[in-house]
Design goal:
With 438 residues, the chain is mainly α. The protein folds into two domains: 382 residues, no CATH class; 47 residues, no CATH class. The chain has 17 helices and two strands.
Length: 438
């Protein structure tokens, strides 16, 4: 009897939540984004005695404030070093990844509100919680996480530039695209997508008659110029690193298997989000949304290009080069995927389906933090060695720093970024690296 009584109560609770979301989607979004920021900032602080490896790398390279590095562009490392300098607290670094995801979500929301109604815009953002890039992996702030908001806002301002023709939007699109390159050079896939859309789409092609695309290119060139100069002066070192990471096909059949393997990895990442969206549709009842007018058709083409274009560019380039893209290169590719799906396949207006989606979202929103906690706590018992996040880095750092200073009176110098970050875990003691090797 208790189970029977609980079910209607639960359904009534979900019904009230759905009704509130329909009336106040902005407030629901604000609450979700706030909770996301708090949960994914506090979880690693509470569960990880030692820094995530990527955060240790942030500290190692960020303190040098170079215009470029042999591995990646510098912006995420600058951001991490700035936060550490301002706060003096290593735990403050854990704010950066969730903050990048939240800003990305907000950028998606702003674009979604311009092409669909508010409740569908909210669904397009909430569905992203099913992709672990925005939660489980977001605590490891580095280049993948940094690029998220720049991709989202580039997409937003490029749309506004095409739809409204304002020079400010063209300028901001160029600035944010350059920011994406300062974050990670994978932004070439986004740039190629926007360029092809500008050339191939009949409505977008009209923009060439204005000064907009040229102003965007100028803004991009000005912002990216310092890093581009560094790349030329240093033999494009980060591209050599990328070349080493992408496995090359050694057998003829691998040239066929690699694209499938890469696509499969991305589908695996997308599976929870696909499952969430599936709750909105009746079985066998998918129907294509007709475009109401030319504007709606353009909106759908544009969002579809954002959702699939960078993936297609990455896949095609890798296939032509006979390379297997690293699965995590898909990190920034899918922010607009749920929105594109909703624009092609409108969800049914059945309140029951919305309640199912709300229940599924709550399960995902609570389930990922629980899985993360279980992994951090339980994984060391299942491995033959402890996790790096369980290493007593701060204790070791304080001990080494204290003994070094007592014996030499000098500041410590590290040979690798990991030893540097470990020694730097003691407050105010980030040492320089004596070699570029990692």
């Amino acid at each position: 009897m208790d189970g029977v009584a609980t079910r209607p109560a639960r359904e009534r609770g979900l019904a009230r939540l759905v009704d509130f979301a329909r009336r106040e989607p902005g407030k629901v979004l604000a609450a979700v984004l706030g909770a996301h920021l708090v949960v994914w900032t506090l979880l690693p602080i509470l569960l990880c005695p030692n820094l995530q490896l990527d955060l240790a790398e942030d500290l190692a390279f960020g303190k040098e404030w170079q215009l470029g590095y042999w591995k990646h562009p510098p912006l995420p490392w600058w951001a991490a070093d700035l936060v550490y300098r301002l706060t003096g607290n290593l735990d403050a670094l854990y704010l950066l990844g969730p903050l990048a995801a939240v800003v990305c979500f907000y950028g998606v929301w702003l674009l979604a509100r311009e092409v669909v109604d508010d409740i569908e815009a909210l669904i397009a953002v909430l569905a992203l919680e099913g992709i672990h890039f925005y939660n489980f992996s977001v605590v490891k702030f580095a280049h993948d996480q940094m690029q998220l908001p720049f991709w989202a806002f580039t997409g937003l301002f490029f749309y506004r530039a095409l739809a409204r023709g304002r020079m400010l939007d063209w300028t901001l699109a160029g600035v944010f695209l350059a920011g994406a390159f300062w974050s990670k050079y994978a932004a070439f896939a986004l740039a190629a997508t926007l360029g092809l859309f500008l050339l191939l789409d009949p409505f977008a092609r009209r923009a060439w008659r204005s000064g907009g695309p040229y102003l965007m290119a100028l803004a991009f060139a000005i912002v990216i110029a310092p890093n581009a100069w560094w790349l030329v002066q240093n033999d494009f070192m980060p591209f050599h690193y990328v070349d080493e990471r992408a496995r090359i096909a050694a057998r003829w059949y691998q040239a066929l298997v690699y694209p499938l393997q890469w696509t499969g990895s991305q589908l695996q990442f997308l599976a929870p989000t696909i499952g969430l969206l599936a709750l909105l549709y009746p079985r066998g009842g998918l129907r294509r949304r007709p475009a109401q007018d030319k504007s709606a058709a353009f909106n759908r083409r544009y969002v579809t290009a954002l959702a699939l274009g960078p993936f297609a560019v990455t896949t095609l380039v890798a296939a032509l080069l006979g390379r297997l893209p690293v699965a995590m290169w898909g990190y920034p590719l899918w922010s607009f995927a749920p929105l594109a799906a909703l624009m092609w396949l409108p969800p049914v207006a059945d309140p029951r389906r919305l309640r199912w989606f709300a229940g599924g979202f709550i399960a995902v929103f609570a389930g990922f933090p629980a899985l993360y906690a279980a992994a951090e706590i339980g994984e060391p018992f299942l491995r033959d060695r402890p996790k790096a996040t369980q290493f007593p880095g701060r204790l070791l750092a304080e001990t080494i720093t204290q003994q070094w200073r007592q014996r030499t009176g000098m500041r410590a110098t590290a040979r690798t970024w990991w030893s540097m970050a470990t020694c730097g875990s003691a407050p105010g003691s980030i040492p320089p690296i004596s070699t570029g090797a990692a």
